[in-house]
Amino acid sequence: MTVGLFIPCYMDQLYPNAAIATLELLEGLSLDVVYPLHQTCCGQPLANSGFSHLTQGCNALFIENFSRFDYVVCPSGSCALHIKEHLSSLNQQEDATALASRVYELVEFLTDVIKIQALDASFPHKVSLHHSCHSLRGLYLAQMSELSSPTFSKPNDLLNMVDGLELVKLERSDECCGFGGTFCVFEEAVSAKMGKDRVDDHVVSGSEYITSSDMSCLMHMEGILKRNHSATKVIHIAEILNSKSAPNIEPKG
């Protein structure tokens, strides 16, 4: 199995430790992981702003970089979902559709493809989990609280495998943090207020670390935490799972 590692541009520039943790975690699974050096932004900001017709260059480069891999793994629910649902090409639509079906967000890949059963990882801290809107309502990594259905959470399942980690309970488990990509730029006041409410729930719970599969949401909340001089920190889920990476996986076949 050969995996192409897709790292969102903001993570590459601002949170390289989360990207490195993703790489090390996947390599710890004895996977052949390749990072295409010419990858760039997936084009999501343009598309979210109503300029999807200007993303063809991003789409063509993504297809060129990642078509040769069995799977493409991305440590970001929003970027992964954008590619899965919106990758297109004027001249290579068949290739684009086939490639989009092989794109997985990191948690999704670990639970649904690799099927991790145990982790040799240790993180002795109180941790609260933020379910991003894209990962929750787009990728269905967890059950939405508004539905009367059996609850599940793929990130929860992985975090419960980490030795010493205490997963604290929130009052509102799947509330939006207010980031919303370009929403936080065009609706700054609303975004900031939503973020403050979301952060308060994590802090009141006694959480030492807020984690998520979306670093963009964590970035938004980190800004609020720092302005409040809070002791609570943010950390990408890959960094927790990679604290010692020697996972046991379910045999295939």
From TrEMBL:
Source organism, top-level taxon: Bacteria
InterPro entries: Cys_rich_dom
Domain Cysteine-rich: 3-84, 127-221
One CC-aspect GO term: cytosol
An example Gene Ontology molecular-function term: oxidoreductase activity
Classification via PANTHER family: LACTATE UTILIZATION PROTEIN A (PTHR30296:SF0), UNCHARACTERIZED PROTEIN YKGE (PTHR30296)
Protein name, as recorded: L-lactate dehydrogenase complex protein LldE
Species annotation: Parapedobacter koreensis
